[in-house]
Design brief:
It is built from seven helices and no strands. It is mainly α and 141 residues long. The chain has a single domain, classed as N-(1-d-carboxylethyl)-l-norvaline Dehydrogenase, domain 2, CATH 1.10.1040.
Length: 141
């Protein structure tokens, strides 16, 4: 039944392993998109052409589907990663709770969550995650 409903099916082991993996995956993805979006905003402030930044960054190890989503918004004005800032922030909160429950901490996730929460507080929560670029642009003005 899962194979009929989903594109990829992975068997991860004990009950809860799928949810844990989802939180880890979303931590990685949303942190990447947040960092890339800020990179485009800082480039803009520094007078670096965003398209040229994309061309340079996408030729190296930073190239990824997430880079394309960020470029689509920061350069082309197309918001096509269908995952809201508010939803990303919710998942980062769950990830931080999980890490804390494991007796550890994640300053990286805390930083991402702080930025996502600030964008939510600025009324941007319904926007797709790459739209956090607009929040970072406002910070650099």
């Amino acid at each position: 039944m899962l194979e009929e409903q989903g594109e990829n099916v992975f068997h991860l082991g004990a009950l809860g392993a799928g949810h844990t993996t989802k939180l880890i995956n979303n931590f990685m993805g949303m942190t990447t998109v947040t960092a890339m979006s800020q990179a485009f905003a800082v480039a803009d402030k520094a007078g670096v052409d965003r398209q040229q930044l994309f061309e340079i960054m996408s030729t190296g190890p930073s190239n990824s589907p997430f880079m394309q989503f960020c470029k689509n918004y920061a350069v082309d004005g197309v918001s096509d990663l269908g995952f809201s800032i508010a939803n990303a922030n919710k998942d980062l909160g769950y990830f931080l709770t999980m890490v804390e429950d494991l007796g550890s901490e994640s300053l990286i996730a805390q930083g991402t969550s702080t930025n996502l929460q600030a964008a939510v507080d600025a009324g941007m929560g319904n926007g797709n995650v790459p739209e956090i670029f607009d929040y970072f642009l406002k910070l650099t003005k």
